[in-house]
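User: Here's a chain of 105 residues. Predict its fold as tokens.
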Amino acid sequence: MIKDEIHKYHRLLSALNKAINDDDGSQITILDRDIEKVWQSILSHKPEDETDLVLMVDFLLTIVLPASDRDGTKVIAAERIRSLVKDLAVAQDCKPSDSSDNATN
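Assistant: Prediction complete.
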């Protein structure tokens, strides 16, 4: 499930930041390669249900709209994108999710 890949991405990114702070070149190289693999896995994932779809959209929106760059207009736009994706999932008769969890980091 995509949730696991997203969590793995965030764990690896945290480890990469630590390696950068520690100036650990060999660890940076390894982590960078691992992050790229997980990133490609996330990008190639085909959502299995509405929850998967929402998790992917939320994750990708946090990539293009980091917390440090969120102003009122961008937040409203991101929420509208989320809403449109959910509407599309319903319109396409996407299998409903078992939970109502929204994706967060």
